[in-house]
Amino acid sequence: MWIAIPVADDRISPVLDVARRFLVVELSGTDERSRREVVVEEAGLVARARRIAGLGCEVLVCGAVSRPLESLLASAGVRVVPNTCGSVDEVLAALRAGGVPEDRFLMPGCRGPGRGRRFRNRYRGGRGGW
The domain at 2-123 falls in which architecture? Predict the structure, then answer.
């Protein structure tokens, strides 16, 4: 599975809509097979979504994301895991272990009704899991 993560200083970038650096990682079960860094400079949402989807990732783990960009990515077949924060290596370790449902990876303010629950329910087990 190919995963893309917007990065800033070895952490998940706080806002996908303006992130420039992306780490693209290939996972096979619990093993990391490869990783590369890619620069995304496109500014418009449609061009940005097209470029990110063109990275070949199946899953995008990110911080905050606007609903229009999230919808464009989803329509391009990219599963978006929003509202995630923390060290890139810690999040990748959690993904290799089966997911990132822990509250410690949720962005501040995303623990209340709605956003946090949406994150946990959509990407943990239930509907296909990882």
Answer: 2-Layer Sandwich (3.30)
